[in-house]
Design brief:
A: alpha/beta, 8 helices, 13 strands, B: about 350 residues, mainly alpha, 15 helices, about 75% helix, about 0% strand
């Protein structure tokens, strides 16, 4: 049990945003704690700064102030390759056109571990096939990446992140382009990976009701605060009331659903 | 692994064809020399006629080697530029390097008359042209690097390169407007490209530069694969984008700059050859494409060189014209076949 709750990434009084410009920080005082073996969802309105937070804690963007500790060490102190061994990312953005096959795509996940010319060892190949087995993407491994559906693509990108073999995986809105069946199967896959391989998986989403059911913890971003809690406590403490600036939307804790007033 | 077998077979074919073309390009020329004699002289034995040996060692061998070096260097820089700029139409010259070379040479050839006596004569020597061309492309490189430090977006660098190209092109036009017919002829002659006329010393210098450029390129093969996923994914895989970008720009400048300096601007090879390699090998893996592009580059350049030289006649076409005449239809044909070009 001790091992399961070991934290992998923590932030201390983090402020995010674009420090060069006058607008300054878009969110301050962020204290979150991401633990191994947990599936954590990040919820908030459009434009509240979810992507900025994800980009900041994954090192793609500088923090305005505060600290980010990855495995006890400051994020800025990581060399790019060492960071890539600890943290992998899945974006929603479409891949640029190209001829990569699904297998080649997953294989890029091994880059932080291969030599200067990128030669894959047999151990690398084994990890790649395991990642594809776990995500059920092996069946179309020889297809070009533009020949598969959005749902399959998300799974392939997750397989790629698994091949990167990092304790922390961060996904930016992985359920966006999917229908309800694929949304659920994707989230189930993430939960399985978090629990079975003891990884920490953080994802942002707008599917709040699905996230409530499946997440171990949730991070709520609102205009005033960033709160991290277990789903049950979020409901009992009525934390959703603050989530949307539009007061016509409220959370019905009995139905576990968002409802509109005056609808 | 059917694909691996296919690739090995293709590589063997490519190497064989390149070697055959290398020998053939030495054998055919204004004076025809039997292939047996060519092979004899190449392997150190004496040819039966002294003139043949002289032609082979001092004219045709250097020319064939220059063709191989130029073909390899330009094609590899094209491959890197296409992936870096995510643009199938990028080539070694998108950064404005050849325009920089042209400007350097134009200043020497067209404006030398304005300088006092001996300085003008010194500049007009063949080394003056090479040095001016190197300085020109190097100046553009420094300009592009300085500006790219301010720009985070790789696409903007492409536009900066194009702007440099138009700017230097305009200055060349102004210079040619004010120059004499004889000066203009010299400049036009340079701009048509020439693989011959290189001394062995020049070949050694060029070889060293091309090898440096190719090794630098090889060291970026892994980052180029990551860049296929876009810059965000590449960074998340541990690629230092800024460093990779600078190494790629530096390697391209060394390759395109030195080749342009010694052989004049050679069009289309850098653009077309990577697409031919991608079409034949059907892969995006840069390690495979690297060797494929290298071999195709050498092979196609040797082929163009042979076409430019009609066998047993004095007639020689300018190499830049031949590569364009072959290159442009090839790119159109590829587009029609594939509908889209990848990078």
């Amino acid at each position: 049990m001790m091992q399961k709750t070991k934290s992998i990434l923590t932030t201390q009084n983090l402020a995010i945003g674009y420090s060069q410009k006058k607008i300054g920080a878009i969110a301050r005082g962020i204290n979150i704690n991401l633990k191994k073996g947990h599936l954590i969802s990040l919820i908030g309105e459009n434009g509240i700064g979810k992507s900025t937070l994800l980009r900041t804690i994954s090192g793609l963007q500088k923090a305005v102030s505060g600290n980010i500790l990855l495995d006890g060490k400051k994020l800025d102190d990581y060399k790019p390759v060492d960071l890539a061994k600890n943290l992998s990312l899945v974006f929603t953005e479409k891949l640029p056109p190209g001829n990569l096959t699904v297998w080649e795509l997953v294989a890029t996940g091994r880059q932080p571990y291969t030599n200067w010319i990128g030669k894959l060892s047999s151990a690398d190949r084994k990890i790649i096939s395991e990642a594809m087995e776990m995500t059920q993407t092996a069946v179309f491994s020889e297809k070009r990446h533009y020949e598969i559906s959005d749902g399959q693509m998300q799974k392939v990108m997750i397989a790629r992140a698994l091949a990167q073999d990092t304790p922390l995986i961060i996904l930016d809105e992985p359920t966006t382009h999917l229908d309800i069946v694929h949304k659920i199967s994707l989230l189930q896959l993430l939960k399985k990976l978090a629990h079975e391989s003891n990884k920490c998986i953080l994802f942002s989403t707008h599917d709040i009701e699905l996230a409530l059911e499946i997440s171990d913890e949730m991070i709520l971003m609102s205009a005033h605060s960033v709160v991290q809690q277990k789903p049950t406590e979020i409901i009992s403490e009525k934390l959703f009331d603050d989530l949307f600036t539009n007061k016509q939307i409220s959370f019905d804790s009995e139905k576990v659903k968002f409802v509109f007033k005056n609808f | 692994m059917l694909k691996q077998k296919r690739n090995s077979l293709l590589f063997i074919l490519l190497i064989t064809f390149t070697a055959l073309l290398f020998v053939a390009s030495i054998a055919f020329g204004s004076v025809s020399i039997p292939i047996k004699e060519v092979i004899n002289s190449l392997f150190g034995a004496t040819a039966s006629r002294e003139t043949w040996e002289y032609i082979i060692i001092n004219y045709r061998l250097p020319k064939a080697i220059t063709a191989v070096l130029a073909g390899m260097g330009l094609s590899i820089s094209g491959l890197m530029m296409q992936t870096l700029f995510r643009n199938p139409l990028a080539g070694p010259y998108v950064l404005g390097l050849s325009s920089g070379s042209s400007l350097g040479v134009a200043i020497v050839l067209l404006a030398a008359g304005l300088l006092p006596g001996f300085l003008g004569v010194m500049l007009l020597s063949s080394y003056g042209v090479i040095i001016a061309s190197c300085l020109g492309s190097f100046a553009v490189l420094l300009g592009v690097l300085a500006i790219s430090k301010q720009l985070r977006d790789t696409m903007s660098i492409l536009i900066v390169g194009l702007m440099f190209a138009s700017f230097t092109g305009a200055i060349v036009s102004v210079l040619s407007y004010f120059s004499t017919a004889e000066q203009l002829q010299k400049f036009t002659f340079w701009s048509l490209g020439n693989l011959g006329n290189l001394s062995w010393t020049s070949i050694i210098v060029l070889s060293i530069l091309v090898v440096i450029g190719i090794v630098l390129s090889l060291s970026e093969v892994k980052s180029l694969d990551a860049l296929l996923l876009g810059e965000n994914y590449a960074r998340s895989l541990g690629v230092n984008i800024k460093k990779s970008r600078n190494v790629i720009i530096l390697a391209t400048s060394i390759l395109a700059g030195s080749i342009t300096a010694f052989a004049g601007p050679i069009a289309f090879i850098g653009l077309a050859v990577p697409h031919i390699a991608k079409l034949v090998f059907q892969t995006s893996s840069h390690l495979i494409l690297f060797w494929a592009t290298l071999l195709f580059g050498a092979m196609i350049m040797l082929f163009c060189d042979m076409l430019s030289q009609f066998p047993s006649s004095d007639l020689t076409l300018p190499i830049n014209a031949v590569t364009s005449i072959i290159g442009a239809p090839v790119v159109i044909w590829l587009l029609l076949r594939k509908r889209t070009l990848n990078y």
